[in-house]
Write a structure and sequence with these properties.
Blueprint lengths: L2 H15 L16 E5 L2 E4 H18 L7 H5 L8 H25 L6 H19 L3 H11 L4 H23 L7 H11 L1 E9 L2 E3 L17 E3 L2 H19 L4 H8 L12 E3 L4 H6 L4 H9 L5 E6 L3 E8 L19 H18 L3 E2 L1 H5 L17
Antiparallel strand pairs: 1-2, 1-9, 3-6, 3-8, 4-5, 7-8
Length: 384
């Protein structure tokens, strides 16, 4: 698994939606042996188990096909490994990335302030109320039953997570990394491209009343109904005809204007900007995964057709990014507001990489830790 992607996911996803939702190393005199070590900083067995339990809980919560049972985690993926092995690999890569961040925290001479430490205590109080019904002893017992450690140990973990958050804020938000205009422009040109899309919808059509007017609900939204099989076949024929025209060199911009059924196509006159840094976000927007994969591997000027059962047919032409489109005032700037953040994240990843290879892994200990045997974790996090 790519280290950079792991760290990027750590910053963009874990900190955003699982903040203080996982466990890290305890730097000190823990009683458990270390799974990972980096220059004296460790991730100990009980902390890694806690973190893996949280990961298990996250996947069970987010993916309906994964249940809290042995069979779910022993299912084989297309790559010939089990679901559990995939998640365990993500877990250990994430743990390594976080361990490197703790090392960098020390190297930059950062310290947690009293207010930052207070935030952790407030989080503990939140979870005593939320998970322990306001009873500290009950919450403590819940931790012991689930993870085998007490509130004091949990606080140590959360303080370490606070360190990693502070490091990220210091380096990225605080400008400690920095960049030049030339670096930004080069990063943008190398990591972004455009796709122009003719979209042919095959899932729904407007519903008309007896007078031929489009029906709307009480909020003014258009009412739709499914296409018949005959209508779907006709739409496929239209898409294939447009695809042939595009392959034969017809002006693609004109094909978009005349044929695309995207409701907001006028808002994207230059097409849609894509970067591998933002695939997760683009998938959430509704673009098919195959479109992202095929366009990423294509050359500028290539034309392709992607059919998606959930939405329709996409006739796509890849194009180079417009120079300086990320700059304020450009018509496409709103699509490119993450360019600076992605550049800074790449620089952050490079810092993590600089210490990554010094990590020592206790392979024997790690081999004995299985997601199947670990209890599903609690939803520990910031409540208010």
């Amino acid at each position: 698994m790519n280290k950079r992607n792991t760290v990027r996911r750590m910053a963009a996803v874990i900190f955003a939606c699982l903040l203080f939702f996982s466990g890290l190393a305890f730097v000190g005199c823990g009683k458990k042996p270390a799974v990972l070590t980096l220059d004296g900083i460790t991730i100990e067995e009980d902390i890694y188990r806690y973190w893996l339990a949280k990961y298990k809980n996250y996947y069970i919560s987010q993916i309906s096909e994964i249940g809290d049972n042995k069979e779910s985690f022993e299912k084989l993926t297309e790559d010939g490994v089990t679901v559990g092995e995939v998640i365990e690999d993500e877990a250990i890569q994430y743990a390594k990335a976080m361990l490197c961040s703790l090392k960098l925290f020390d190297e930059y001479g950062l310290k947690l302030s009293s207010s930052e430490k207070t935030l952790v205590k407030e989080m503990i109080d939140d979870n005593i109320l939320y998970l322990g019904g306001g009873d500290r002893a009950e919450f403590n017992q819940l931790l012991l039953d689930t993870y085998g450690f007490s509130i004091d140990r949990l606080e140590e973990i959360l303080l370490l997570e606070q360190k990693v958050e502070k490091l990220t804020s210091y380096l990225i938000d605080g400008g400690a990394i920095g960049y030049t205009a030339d670096e930004l422009d080069a990063f943008y040109m190398e990591n972004y491209y455009r796709v122009k899309i003719v979209f042919i919808n095959t899932t729904a059509k407007p519903k008309f009343d007896a007078e031929g007017k489009v029906q709307t609900d009480i909020l003014g939204n258009m009412i739709t109904e499914p296409l018949t099989d005959e209508e779907k076949a006709a739409k496929k024929g239209i898409a294939e005809e447009i695809f042939e025209k595009a392959k034969n060199g017809e002006n693609f911009d004109e094909l978009v204007k005349k044929n695309s059924e995207f409701e907001n196509k006028e808002s994207y006159p230059n097409g849609y900007y894509i970067s591998s840094y933002e695939f997760d976000i683009l998938l959430e927007s509704g673009l098919p995964k195959q479109l992202l994969l095929d366009s990423n591997n294509a050359k500028n000027g290539d034309v392709m057709m992607i059919s998606d059962e959930k939405s329709g047919h996409y006739i796509v032409q890849k194009a180079a990014p417009e120079a300086g489109a990320y700059k304020k005032g450009h018509a496409d700037a709103a699509q490119l507001e993450r360019v600076v953040g992605n550049l800074l994240q790449t620089k952050y990843d490079a810092l993590v990489d600089s210490v990554w290879d010094r990590i020592k892994v206790n392979e024997d200990l790690l081999a004995g830790i299985s997601i199947v045997d670990i209890k599903r974790g609690l939803n520990i996090g910031k409540i208010s």
